[in-house]
Amino acid sequence: MRLRHALAAVGIAALPAVAAAQTIDRSNGEAGAPILQLTTAPRAAALGGALTAAGGVTSIFANPAGAITVRHLEVQLGGQTLFEGSKAGSMALGIRARSVALALGIRYLDLGSVDEVVCNGCGGSGTPTGQQLSANEQTFALAGAVQLGHASVGAAVNCVRARVSERLAVGASLQYVGGDVDVGGFGAPLPRTVRAGAELRPLGPSHERLHLLFAADYAAVRGAPGRVGGGVEVGLADPATQLLVVARLGLASRAGGDFETRPVTLGVGLKFRQVALDYAYAGSELLGSQHRLGLTFADR
């Protein structure tokens, strides 16, 4: 795919032109702020986007109440390729003291640059100006959570995460409640999203060598059809070295958000003591193969 074609295709969603803004479907939340709909966390991407009931600091991107799953300190860096010269990524930092946790999440979307060309009567290829056009977005999120028995409540509208047992966790959240997002003088509705999810560990945490987890998520952006995604995570652990190796397989009933990602996702993970390295693969109709990498440090 040529860069200017890809930039133009994604730029229509991120930075609408005048004509597009005039015809935007204001009831469809997927029309605005595409950066808020990206799944940059590799583990969640490999599990079909399941993140609402997940543990770890990256869960704040789907449910701020997940910040309470941080034990003491946790830091995560994640990134992915989109197409030539463009990339997306995230950073999350969480700390916890007793029953209170705070987390900061940052996401970025860099669509790269193209040469500016002035149309000569719109009958030819145009004249380069020597300047470049670029597009990028960043978002910042500050989440707070409080442990209330087996449940935790986060600093967002109607978000909750509950550990039903040592084997089952459930979560729900309502995100991006507000009016329009203004980009370049043109307004588009925020992608107000309702989420619900669950994670099941049928073997429980006491099994020393075999790791098994099932995850599922439902997400509905206002004005758009809902999406169901989930996956399975299987791994082997060595108690002596504290090494854990996992493989992940995910499926999404309606791929979207990440520029029409194909429904099947794959991933692997390697955890050694306090450090974890995760990789996820997903295909896209528009962007081709997408590769996500994430590095996590957790002080437990």
List keywords for this structure.
300 residues; mainly beta; Porin; two-stranded antiparallel ribbon; 3 helices
In short:
This protein is 7% helix and 54% strand.
Topology record:
Elements: H1 3-14, H2 18-22, H3 42-46, E1 73-81, E2 87-97, E3 100-118, E4 127-148, E5 151-154, E6 160-163, E7 168-175, E8 180-183, E9 186-189, E10 193-200, E11 210-221, E12 227-238, E13 243-252, E14 261-272, E15 275-284, E16 288-299
Antiparallel strand pairs: 1-2, 1-16, 2-3, 3-4, 4-5, 5-6, 6-7, 7-10, 8-9, 10-11, 11-12, 12-13, 13-14, 14-15, 15-16
The CATH H-level homologous superfamily: monomeric porin ompg
Identify the strand order in the major beta sheet: 1-2-3-4-5-6-7-10-11-12-13-14-15-16
Global mean pLDDT: 79
Give the CATH class: Mainly Beta
Give the number of DSSP strands: 16
- Low-confidence stretches are 1-24
CATH fold type: Porin
Helix content: under 10%
Q: What is the helix/strand order?
A: HHHEEEEEEEEEEEEEEEE
Distance between the termini: 44 Å
The portion of residues forming beta strands comes to over 45%
Radius of gyration, taken over Cα atoms and rounded to an integer in Å: 20 Å
Gross morphology: globular
Question: Which CATH architecture is right?
Answer: Beta Barrel
**Helix segment tally:** 3
- The tally of structural domains comes to 1
